[in-house]
Amino acid sequence: MNKNFVMLAQNSSHDYVEQASVCAMSIHLHVPDAKISLITNDPVPDCYAQLFDNVVDIPWGDLAEKHEWKIHNRWKILHAMPYDNALVLDTDMLILEDISHWFKFLSKYDLFYTTNVKTYRNDIITGDFYRKNFVKHQLPNLYAGIHYVNKTPFTYQFNSLLDKIIQNWNEFAGYIQKNPSIDVAAGLTAKLLDCESQITNSQSLIPSFTHVKPNIQGWASLNESWQKQIGSYFTDDLELWIGNYKQSGVFHYTEKDFLNDEIIKKYKTKIGI
Amino acid sequence: MTLQGILVFAFNNSQIDYISQAINLATRAKKFLNLPVSIVTDSSIDSDVFEHIIHYKPSFTTGKRYYDGALSNKNLNFRNDARTHAYDLTPYSETLILDTDFVIADSVLSYCFEQSHDFLAYKNATDLSGHRNYGEFQYVSDTGVDFYWATVVFFRKTLLNKTFFDLLNHVKENWTHYKQVYRIEGSTYRNDHAFSIAIHIINGFQKGDFAKSVPGNLLYTTDKDILHSIEDNDFVFMLEKQRRKGEYTVVKTANQSIHVMNKFSLDRALKNE
Fold first, then answer.
1. How far apart are CA A156 and CA B100, in angstroms?
2. What ipTM, to 2 d.p.?
3. Is residue B259 included in any domain, yes or no?
4. Residue A5 pLDDT grade (very low, low, confident, very high; cuts 50, 70, 90)
C-alpha cells in the first residue's frame, strides 16, 4: 500500500516551506515507508530537501503572485504530484501517530475530503462559528486541510471545476463570501456536481484532524488565539500536550507562531538533521 | 464469593444531618435494589439498617456554601475526604457508592451488578429544571477535562481499580497542585473533580473508556431548588425559575431516583415523610 503525502508551499511573509518541512519530519517519525513530495517554487534548504522524495515546481506560472493568501495554485497539486494517489496536507499540520491505516480506507475512493474534525479534547466539532456560510448556503462541510486524491477521471473533473471557481471567485462564489476559500470552493464544487456522498462520509473519522481554532473548542469566551487561552507543551519525545490533554492523530495548529524555534529544534534533533 | 452492596459516607456538620439521609437511603436501597448498605462515618449510629458501620476520622475539613433555595445560604463545614478510600473501606467485592442525598425511587441501579464493566460513573446528567446550562458539570473548568460525577460510582475489586483509587488518593493528597494544573476554581475540595482528574489520568491523559456510564440517567436538582415533600416514590420540587430569582415552578416526579443537592430541604422532607 502506497503511503504518499503531498504538500504545496508558497512562502509569503511566512516561511511555509519550513512548516512543510516540519510536517514532513513528523510524518517520517510516525508513518513507516512514507513518500513525501513538496510542490513549491521557493528554495528548500538542503537540510530540509532530504526530507522529501521529490521537490516539484509549481507548474504554469504563479497564479497567486498578487495574493497574500495563496490558494490559487492549489488545483495544480493533482497535476504536479508525482504519484497516482496521495494524501494532500496543509503545511501547518503535525502527524502525531501512525496513520498508515487511513490509506487502505481511502484507496477505495477517487477523492475524499475530511468532514469531521476534533477539538483538542477529542470531541467532534459541531459548532459552526467559522462555518456560517456553509450552513447558510447548505454546502457540504468539507475540510481541504487533509484530503485524498486519486488520479481518476472523476477527480480531474472535480479539480477542473474547483479551479474555475477559485480563478473566477466573484462570479461563482462572491455571493457566499468576499475572499476565496479552498474549503468553500470544495464545498461549492461538490454541491454543483452533486457528489458529496462520493467524496466524503459524515460518519467517518478517517481522515480527521484536531482543529484548534479557538472559538470551536467549547470554551465559554470568544478568543482570537487559542494559544492565549490554553498552554501547549512538546516533550523531548515530541508528545504534544494542549492543556491537560495529550494529543494524538493529526494536529492542525492554524496559528503560525505556534511552530517556534524550540519545537523545530526538537524535531530536527529527533530526526537527526 | 461475590459480596455486593452499597457504601455511603456520612459526616454530619452543625446543620446537615447526613446520617438521617443515609438511613433513608439504606431503607430505600433495601426496598428497590435489595442490597445491603454499609456506612462510613465518625458518628455513633442508632439504627440497624446498616450491614456494617465503618468508623473513619476525616483528615481534613473544608468550608462550603450550602444553599437552601435561591435566596438563602450558609457557610458550613464539609468533610468529604473519605470517599477516595472506598476501595480499602468497602466490605464488598462489588460496591455501589452513593451520595446520601441521592434518593432512590427505582431499581435501575441494580443493573450495575449485572453488567460486565468494572468501573462505572456518570459523565452526563440531567437538570430537572431543563433551563439551566451548567458548564461546570461538563468540564472541570473552561479548558479542563471531562467532568464525572462521584455521586454514583460502581466498582469491582480489581487490580486496575486498586490502581485507580491509589491514584485518586494521590490526587486528593496533592490537591493544591492538581487544582492549579487542572485550572479548577474555588477553594473547596470536591470528589467530583478528584474523580474526574483521576479518570483522565488513567485514560492516558486523553478521552478514554476506563469509566463506563452507570445505567440509566442521573437526574438532579440543584441547591437553588427546594425539595418540598416526599411521599413514597412521589417527590414534589420547587424549581428555580429562569431569570426570576426567588421564584419557583412546582414539579412532581414519580418512580424516579434523583440527586437532591439542597440538603436542608432534603432533611426537612425526610423528617416530614
1. 66
2. 0.88
3. no
4. very high
